[in-house]
Specification:
- A 5-stranded antiparallel sheet has the order 1-2-3-4-5, with no helix packed on it.
- The chain is extended, with a radius of gyration of 18 Å.
- The protein starts with a strand and ends in a 6-residue tail after the last strand.
- It has one domain.
- It is mainly β and 124 residues long.
- It is 0% helix and 42% strand.
- It is built from no helices and 5 strands.
């Protein structure tokens, strides 16, 4: 597929770029950005993503996942205050749009924006 890529399964969700620079436990002292994120984006979820990437440098992504990080087969007993129903997980939607182009041999321009939304999460 020349301009499209499809990813399905359990994978690291691509809704930001910080997880590409995230430190592992051994080198965190050298990373000034460690643990300074509002939303941790180094998680694995089950879902699918469709990428569009063009030779001009433009790219886009649209994806949907199962939402929860810790899936369980136990039925929730908590009541959602907003809906007055049993709390249940809902799918998470994420998207990304951006431009990434090598302009010169030693100059690369990259600008991206991401979106992640989940309506409710399962609480036990």
């Amino acid at each position: 597929m020349k301009y499209l890529t499809l990813k399905v399964g359990a994978y690291d969700v691509d809704y930001g770029d910080q997880h590409y620079r995230r430190s592992d436990g051994g080198n965190t002292i050298y990373n000034s950005f460690i643990e300074n994120y509002i939303l941790e984006e180094f998680d694995t979820e089950i879902g699918c993503e469709v990428y569009f990437h063009h030779d001009s440098g433009w790219m886009g992504l649209l994806g949907i996942t199962n939402g929860p990080l810790n899936l369980t087969v136990v039925v929730s007993t908590k009541i959602d205050a907003a809906t007055v129903e049993l709390n249940k997980p809902t799918p998470a939607l994420h998207a990304k749009i951006g431009y990434d182009k090598q302009i010169y041999l030693d100059l690369r321009f990259r600008q991206k924006g991401s979106f992640y939304n989940v309506k409710s999460v399962l609480r036990q």
